[in-house]
């Protein structure tokens, strides 16, 4: 995991070195102060009254201490600056790499991760790793530097007393190792609890209208409180681990300091060391122990960072199952002839959703697909632009298997209006131009007129420049559907897939949109999924799906004679109209 993440620090070695050098400089300047101050004490103690020479020496030492303080400050500032720059660049690179990888995911890859989990990994987990890099450059350099320098000064004062460090260090390392062993699973669970909180919040915000319509605010609050409480409990367990280690470390530190003062007093009484050196030695020993504790706390931070890093690497290592072939085919003059040949498809559970699908949609024809809910209509059309890949058989466009196409070229010649109408924050014109970013205003207006969207757009406060709320929440379902159809028409695709995209539109408007398909899209192959027979009645070919298989194919009149399922659907819908 560290090896995979370290590549995002490539080119930042000089800044990392500068950060480490700044910490070492600060450590040396900081730890030299007690020894210099003790030399002043010894100088004054051994002096025979005040003399100008003594004052001059003390002034020079004071100036030296001031200069060292300034140098130490500069070293610290250099570390703060460089570590911040390194961590920010690391976070930017990692977040960018994750976003690009997620953008390349197929629908199958996205199904593997929940949206809330991907959001947490892209934000919370990356931020944790970013902060760890910054803290690591500061603490993991500063603490060992202070530890080594402090130990050096301590052994130079009294090597025998300083040997206590060699006894204490293994004990502290064992304690830290035990805490790390139990800490990692806790932090893994904690990140999953954050995923759950994000999921609940996301669902609640997206479905706010439904929540209020069904007066379910109390239930949603309970769901949020439950997930939030679970996160708090798991966080408390992890925090409890940190809280537990602190008193143990402090107890050991205080015991060592008491021992140093006791043994130091005995050595001073025997003339083995000066009295002033006892406090200086205790200070250096304290620095060693404090920095061991800082390193241990940093290791706990690294434990949580490892949990986050594993989740980030899991995304980066995910194998994208739909990629360009080695020698992708790019059509020069696509026509839009779509043919299914013995197609079988199933999701991750191994159960086939579609089986033995065979039909052809000729260029410029309109093919309707109808069937009961859950029979596989949406799954079928998702296979054409390779949102999913077939598990058996093949789908050809103009005689070439879609798996041999360049992905961008394939999807560029296919327009899709999915079941769920998605609009983005921005103006209506910007949303329509998703179909063709270089389209003129006249082309945008023509596409909207074809989709029967022009009139309601002009009734908006700013017309085509009206800004849409996130997801187009300030529009009705039918208005959003017409904008999505206009967006697809503007693309001038060779194949246009409409997945029940007029379900929220009244029958009169739907009839006008269908008329547009016949008059304005004569060279476009239109595959139309619908629930209403009236939506596909005039199609050149109608496919009746039943439980993932084709029951029958034909025109409306042919199916009324040959398909029992089609007649039953028609009868039910006609009965509904009569009533």
Q: Uncertain runs with pLDDT below 50, 5 residues or more?
A: none
Tally of structural domains: 2
CATH top level assignment of the largest domain: Mainly Alpha
The name of the CATH topology of the largest domain is ABC transporter transmembrane region fold
What's the β-strand tally? 12
N- and C-termini, Cα separation? 65 Å
Describe the structure.
- Strand 1 and strand 2 form a beta hairpin.
- This protein has a six-stranded mixed beta sheet. The chain has a four-stranded antiparallel beta sheet with strand order 2-1-4-5, with no helix packed on it.
- The protein folds into two domains: 2-316, ABC transporter type 1, transmembrane domain (ABC transporter transmembrane region fold, Up-down Bundle), CATH 1.20.1560; 338-578, Rossmann fold (3-Layer(aba) Sandwich), CATH 3.40.50.
- The chain is an alpha/beta fold and 579 residues long.
- Helices cover 65% and strands 11% of the residues.
- Helix 3 (52-103) runs antiparallel to helix 5, helix 14 (441-450) crosses helix 16 and helix 19 (556-562) packs across helix 20.
- 34% of the residues are buried.
- The protein has helices spanning 2-6, 13-46, 52-103, 107-112, 115-157, 159-162, 164-206, 208-213, 217-269, 275-316, 377-382, 407-412, 428-432, 441-450, 454-458, 477-490, 507-520, 533-536, 556-562, 564-578; strands at residues 338-346, 352-361, 366-371, 392-397, 400-401, 414-417, 426-427, 467-468, 495-499, 525-529, 541-546, 549-554.
Summarize the structure.
65% of the residues lie in helices and 11% in strands.
């Amino acid at each position: 995991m560290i090896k995979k993440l370290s590549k995002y620090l490539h080119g930042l070695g000089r800044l990392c070195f500068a950060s480490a050098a700044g910490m070492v400089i600060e450590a040396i300047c900081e730890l030299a102060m007690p020894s210099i101050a003790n030399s002043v004490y010894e100088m004054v103690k051994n002096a025979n009254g005040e003399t100008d020479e003594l004052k001059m020496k003390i002034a020079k030492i004071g100036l030296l201490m001031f200069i060292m303080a300034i140098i130490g400050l500069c070293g610290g500032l250099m570390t703060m600056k460089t570590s911040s720059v390194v961590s920010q660049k690391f976070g930017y690179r990692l977040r960018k790499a994750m976003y690009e990888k997620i953008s390349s995911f197929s629908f199958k890859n996205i199904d593997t991760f929940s949206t809330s989990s991907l959001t947490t990994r892209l934000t919370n987990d990356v931020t944790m790793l970013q902060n760890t890099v910054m803290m690591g450059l500061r603490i993991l350099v500063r603490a060992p530097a202070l530890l080594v320098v402090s130990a050096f000064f301590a052994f130079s004062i009294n090597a025998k007393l300083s040997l206590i460090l060699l006894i204490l260090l293994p004990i502290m390392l064992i304690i830290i190792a035990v805490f790390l062993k139990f800490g990692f699973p806790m932090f893994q669970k904690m990140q999953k609890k954050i995923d759950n909180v994000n999921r609940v919040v996301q669902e609640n915000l997206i479905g706010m209208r439904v929540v209020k319509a069904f007066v379910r605010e109390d239930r949603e609050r309970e769901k949020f409180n439950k997930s939030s409480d679970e996160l708090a409990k798991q966080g408390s367990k992890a925090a409890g681990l940190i809280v537990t280690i602190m008193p143990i470390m402090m107890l050991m530190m205080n015991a060592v300091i008491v021992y140093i003062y006791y043994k130091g007093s005995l050595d001073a009484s025997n003339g083995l060391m000066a009295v002033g050196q006892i406090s200086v030695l205790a200070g250096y020993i304290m620095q060693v122990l404090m920095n061991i504790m800082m390193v241990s706390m940093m290791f706990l931070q690294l434990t949580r960072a490892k949990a986050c890093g594993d989740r980030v690497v899991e995304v980066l290592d995910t194998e994208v199952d739909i990629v360009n072939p080695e020698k992708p085919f790019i059509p020069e003059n696509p026509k839009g002839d779509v043919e299914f040949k013995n197609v079988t498809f199933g999701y991750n559970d191994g159960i086939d959703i579609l089986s033995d699908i065979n039909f052809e949609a000729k260029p410029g024809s309109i093919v309707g697909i109808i069937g009961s809910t859950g029979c596989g209509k949406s799954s079928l059309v998702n296979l054409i632009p390779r949102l999913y890949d077939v598990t058996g058989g093949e789908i050809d466009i103009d005689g070439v298997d879609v798996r041999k196409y360049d992905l961008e070229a394939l999807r560029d010649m296919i327009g899709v209006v999915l079941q769920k109408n998605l609009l983005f924050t921005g103006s209506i014109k910007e949303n329509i131009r998703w179909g063709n970013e270089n389209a003129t205003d006249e082309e945008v207006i023509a596409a909207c007129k074809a989709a029967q969207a022009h009139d309601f757009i002009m009734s908006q406060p700013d017309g085509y420049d009206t800004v849409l709320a996130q997801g187009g929440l300030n529009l009705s379902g039918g208005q959003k559907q017409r904008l999505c159809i206009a967006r697809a028409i503007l693309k001038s695709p060779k194949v246009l897939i409409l997945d029940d995209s007029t379900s929220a539109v009244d029958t009169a408007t739907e009839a006008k949109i269908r008329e547009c398909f016949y008059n304005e899209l004569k060279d476009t192959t239109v595959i139309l999924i619908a629930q209403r027979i009236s939506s596909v009645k005039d199609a050149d070919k109608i496919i009746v799906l039943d439980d993932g298989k084709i029951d029958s194919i034909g025109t409306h009149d042919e199916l009324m004679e040959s398909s029992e399922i089609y007649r039953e659907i028609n009868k039910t819908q006609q009965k509904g109209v009569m009533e």
